[in-house]
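Please fill in the sequence for the structure shown.

STRUCTURE ENCODING:
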């Protein structure tokens, strides 16, 4: 039994248990919150402090440099402040006299003008050097992978112009080869950012901004559009695959697979999906190479042009990393894109009056998912 201090009444066993239950809930909440935060921190794929390219090395170096300089300043200021508060606190025998004032103290004035100036210069010099280093163009004859990047609401178009094919959202590059991105946008300003590989750079309509990087570790790196670009900005992910130079998973092998024409449908359902793809007018926005009926003329490319689907089945995700690439998810997306990505042009009632039933979407998905 417990005695309630405010009311003086004896509390029942039941209320005691409600106190225990509340504490347990708080502890559980804390555990959930802590593990969620730990999950964020442990995600190595979006960490600018775990760089895997020359460009990201510079960002991480600048971050660490500024952190070190600012930490030293913070420690000195905090220590000095604490010392002053304790040393000059008001005491019982205080006579009310002001301590000696330092206003107009020439040496101090000079010191606190010169020291911050030196600090700013010390930060400015490496900053300027690194800006030029980031903008440095590859040397004459150096092999370069050029990729045109077009930000669209809400996905990324990648045009491998030298190779003659296009893909979307999942960028593939080769380890050790300089990559040159030529970035622009079709509608509003977006920003390309893969924290472990690149800095942030705006993709702006009507302009082309370049970005260079050279990845040194093969792997999969996650990125995100970093400029608020509309209602589904958060669903504008990027995945960057860095392939080794040799072997079955090499960049050359990936390029060769992307250059191939799309595989013709193998099953009756996939064949029906292909017919529906044409009937419903999907090929007015989406290109599938290898059949004149599903090909989109390069000149037909415009703001509304959707992702090239020639090898959509080979991607790991769809809808700019919103969904895992499975046959079921393609069907869900084709049937009702607006419920997955609000405001997407596909399925927008203003443009697209074609309705695709669930059953039709499944046939289309059977066709698309096998386009490896
Ligand atoms: Cu595109 Cu945010």
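FILLED IN BY: designer on duty
SEQUENCE:
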């Amino acid at each position: 039994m417990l005695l309630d201090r405010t009311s003086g009444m004896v509390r029942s066993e039941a209320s005691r248990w409600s106190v225990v239950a509340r504490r347990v809930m708080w502890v559980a909440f804390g555990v959930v919150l802590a593990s969620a935060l730990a999950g964020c921190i442990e995600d190595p794929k979006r960490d600018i402090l775990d760089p895997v390219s020359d460009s990201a090395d510079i960002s991480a170096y600048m971050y660490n440099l500024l952190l070190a300089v600012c930490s030293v300043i913070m420690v000195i200021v905090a220590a000095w402040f604490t010392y002053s508060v304790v040393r000059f606190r008001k005491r019982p025998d205080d006579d009310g006299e002001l301590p000696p004032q330092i206003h107009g103290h020439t040496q101090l004035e000079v010191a606190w003008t010169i020291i911050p100036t030196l600090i700013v210069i010390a930060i400015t010099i490496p900053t300027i050097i690194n800006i030029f280093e980031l903008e440095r163009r590859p040397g004459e004859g150096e092999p370069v992978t050029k990729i045109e990047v077009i930000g669209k609401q809400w996905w990324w178009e990648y045009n491998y112009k030298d190779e003659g094919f296009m893909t979307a959202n999942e960028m593939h590059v080769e380890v050790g080869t300089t990559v040159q991105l030529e970035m622009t946008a079709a509608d509003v300003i977006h920003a390309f950012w893969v924290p472990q590989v690149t800095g942030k750079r705006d993709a702006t309509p009507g302009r082309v901004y370049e970005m260079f990087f050279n990845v040194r570790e093969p792997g999969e790196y996650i990125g995100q559009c970093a400029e608020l670009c509309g209602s589904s900005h958060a669903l504008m992910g990027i995945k960057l695959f860095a392939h080794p130079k040799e072997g079955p998973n090499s960049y050359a092998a990936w390029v060769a697979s992307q250059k191939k024409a799309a595989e013709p449908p193998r099953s009756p359902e996939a064949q029906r999906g292909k017919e529906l793809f044409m009937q419903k007018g999907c090929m007015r926005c989406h290109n599938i190479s290898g059949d004149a009926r599903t090909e989109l003329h390069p000149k037909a490319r415009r703001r509304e042009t959707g992702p090239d689907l020639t090898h959509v089945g080979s991607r790991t995700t769809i809808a700019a990393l919103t969904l895992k690439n499975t046959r079921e998810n393609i069907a869900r997306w084709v049937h009702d894109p607006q419920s997955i990505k609000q405001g997407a042009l596909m399925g927008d009632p203003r443009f697209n009056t074609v309705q695709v039933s669930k059953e039709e979407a499944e046939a289309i998905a059977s066709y698309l998912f096998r386009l490896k």
